[in-house]
UniProtKB/TrEMBL annotation:
InterPro entries: Aminotrans_V_dom, PyrdxlP-dep_Trfase, PyrdxlP-dep_Trfase_major, PyrdxlP-dep_Trfase_small
Residues in the signal sequence: none
Keyword annotations: Pyridoxal phosphate, Transferase
EC number: 2.8.1.7
Aminotransferase class V domain boundaries: 27-430
MF terms (GO), sorted A to Z: cysteine desulfurase activity
Protein name in the entry: Cysteine desulfurase
Primary gene name: csd_2
Pfam families: Aminotran_5 (PF00266)
Cofactor: pyridoxal 5'-phosphate
Length: 447
C-alpha cells in the first residue's frame, strides 16, 4: 500500500475514523461483519437525494429519471459507465445483464434457492462452515421435500478435500454445489476454480457465496466458470441494503417465457412493477434479465453508490488490499501465539498460517467467564471486534455441542472472537488491540 494512496490518505476518506470517544479514536476490526464507508460513497448517496431524487428512466421519461438511469445503467454516448457495468467489470462478467441487484447476499442466495428448477431428489452440496444464509434456504427446501442437502467435510488439516469432493459427485445426484468462497469463520479460501471444474465434469452447477471474497481479492467469474456468484456491497465500503447476484446469461433467461419452459433457467420469485413487459387479466410477459429479477422501486441512491464503492476499491487495487490485510494478520498471529499459544486455553480457529486466512483471525478462549471480551475491548480502548457464532450456528454446535454458549459448569465457559482487518487498518491499531487484550486477560486472572 505504499504507492498511489497511502494508508493515512485512505483513512482520511472515512469520516467514522475521525470520531473520538474518551479522547481516543475508534479501532475498527469488525470488517468481516460490515466495513466503514468512505466519503466518496456517502457523497454519491447525498447527490441523489439533493440533485435527482426520482424513479429511474426505466419507469419515467423526464430529466431526473434520465440522470438516475445514467448512473445505474450508464450512457456510452456521454461516457457514463453506470454502476451495473462497473460491477460487471469488477468481477469480469460477460455482460452487465448478468448482474442482478438484490437487497444483500442473503436475498441473492434465496432467489437461487427458490427460483431454480430443482427436481425431487436433487442434492445441494455445501461445506461444513456455511453462513446461515447459505444453509437455511437449502434446509427449508429439504423440509419441503424438493431437494436433499449434503455436506463435504474438510481433510485432517481442515482444508478443502478435493478427492472427497469428487467422490461425492460420482456417487450422488448433486445438482448444485453452493459454497462460501472464503469462510467468515477462518478466512480460508476454497480452491474455487478446481471445484468448478470438477463439478461441471459431473454435471453439477456451482454457486459461490463471495461475501468474504469479492471485497478482498480478485474474483473473475469467467476464469472460474462459476454459474452463480453472490456478494454484498456493505462488506466492500458500499451502501447497506445492496447485494449482487451474478448468473450466467443462459441461466437467467433470454426469452420472455423461459421461466416456464427451460429446465436450467432461474425463475423470478418476486414479481410486480418493473419486472413485466405486458400483462392482461389472465397472463403476463416478463422483461428480460436483469429487470425481471428487480421487482418494485429500487434503492436508487444505494445502487448509484455501489458504483462509487467499486471504483474506490479498483483505484486501490485488490492485490494491494489483500497483501496489506495478510501482513496485519501475520503480525497479529505471531504475537498472539507467542503470548498465549502454549496456555492451553487459547486457540486460533482454522489454518495456523495467516497467509491462508487473509484478513480474518478467529480465536477461541476457554476460560471461566470467557464471554465479554469484545465489550471490554470496546469499553477500554474503542477496539471493535466480533464475538459469538458469526451466523454459523451449525458449525459451532457440531464442534462444541448444543447449548455450548450456556454451559452449566463454570470450567466449560468458552467464547469465540473474530478480528477482521481491512485496508484502512494499521499496525499501530493492531498493537493497541494486543495490549488491551493483554490488560483484560491480566485483570481476569488468565495470565
Amino acid at each position: 500500500m505504499n504507492s498511489r494512496k497511502s494508508i493515512e490518505e485512505c483513512r482520511a476518506d472515512f469520516p467514522a475514523l475521525k470520531r473520538q470517544r474518551m479522547g481516543k479514536p475508534p479501532i475498527y476490526l469488525d470488517n468481516a461483519c460490515t466495513t466503514l464507508v468512505p466519503k466518496q460513497v456517502i457523497e454519491s448517496i447525498q447527490e441523489y437525494y439533493t440533485e435527482y431524487p426520482s424513479c429511474s428512466g426505466t419507469r419515467s421519461r423526464h430529466w431526473f429519471a434520465q440522470e438516475v438511469n445514467e448512473r445505474i445503467e450508464g450512457d456510452p454516448s456521454k461516457g457514463i459507465k453506470g454502476s451495473r457495468q462497473m460491477i460487471a467489470e469488477f468481477i469480469n462478467a460477460g455482460s452487465k445483464k448478468e448482474i442482478i441487484f438484490t437487497l444483500n447476499a442473503t436475498h441473492a442466495l434465496n432467489l437461487v434457492a427458490l427460483g431454480f428448477p430443482f427436481r425431487t431428489g436433487d442434492v445441494v452440496l455445501l461445506t461444513d462452515k456455511e453462513h446461515n444464509s447459505n444453509l437455511l434456504p437449502w434446509l427449508k427446501m429439504q423440509k419441503a421435500g424438493r431437494i436433499k442437502v449434503d455436506f463435504i467435510q474438510p481433510d485432517a488439516q481442515d482444508n478443502f478435500d478435493l478427492d472427497a469432493f469428487e467422490q461425492r459427485l460420482k456417487t450422488g445426484r448433486v445438482r448444485l454445489v453452493s459454497m462460501a468462497y472464503t469462510s467468515n469463520i477462518t478466512g480460508y479460501t476454497i480452491p474455487a476454480k478446481a471445484i468448478t471444474q470438477i463439478a461441471h465434469q459431473y454435471g453439477a452447477l456451482v454457486l459461490f457465496d463471495g461475501a468474504q471474497a469479492v471485497p478482498h481479492q480478485t474474483v473473475d467469474v469467467q476464469s472460474l466458470d462459476v454459474d452463480f456468484l453472490v456478494f454484498s456491497l456493505h462488506k466492500m465500503c458500499g451502501p447497506r441494503g445492496v447485494g449482487v447476484l451474478y448468473g450466467k446469461k443462459e441461466l437467467l433467461g433470454q426469452q420472455p417465457h423461459e421461466e416456464d419452459e427451460i429446465e436450467q433457467v432461474l425463475a423470478p420469485v418476486i414479481q410486480g412493477g418493473g419486472t413485466v413487459a405486458d400483462a392482461t387479466y389472465h397472463d403476463y410477459t416478463l422483461m428480460l434479465p436483469p429487470d425481471r429479477f428487480e421487482a418494485g422501486i429500487q434503492d436508487y441512491p444505494a445502487l448509484i453508490a455501489s458504483g462509487a464503492a467499486v471504483q474506490y476499491l479498483q483505484q486501490l487495487g485488490l492485490d494491494r488490499i489483500r497483501d496489506h490485510e495478510t501482513s496485519l494478520n501475520h503480525f497479529l498471529t505471531e504475537e498472539l501465539l507467542n503470548r498465549y499459544g502454549d496456555t492451553g486455553w487459547f486457540r486460533i480457529v482454522g489454518p495456523q498460517d495467516a497467509a491462508q486466512r487473509g484478513g480474518i483471525l478467529t480465536f477461541e478462549v476457554k476460560r471461566p467467564n470467557a464471554p465479554g471480551l469484545a465489550a471490554d475491548l470496546s469499553e477500554k480502548n474503542n477496539v471493535m471486534i466480533r464475538d459469538g457464532v458469526f451466523c454459523v450456528h451449525a458449525y459451532f454446535n457440531e464442534k462444541f455441542g448444543p447449548q455450548w454458549t450456556r454451559p452449566i459448569a463454570h470450567s466449560e465457559h468458552r467464547m469465540v472472537y473474530r478480528v477482521s482487518c481491512y485496508f484502512y487498518n494499521t499496525m499501530e491499531e493492531c498493537r493497541v488491540f494486543l495490549e488491551t487484550l493483554d490488560e483484560i486477560f491480566k485483570e481476569r486472572g488468565y495470565i
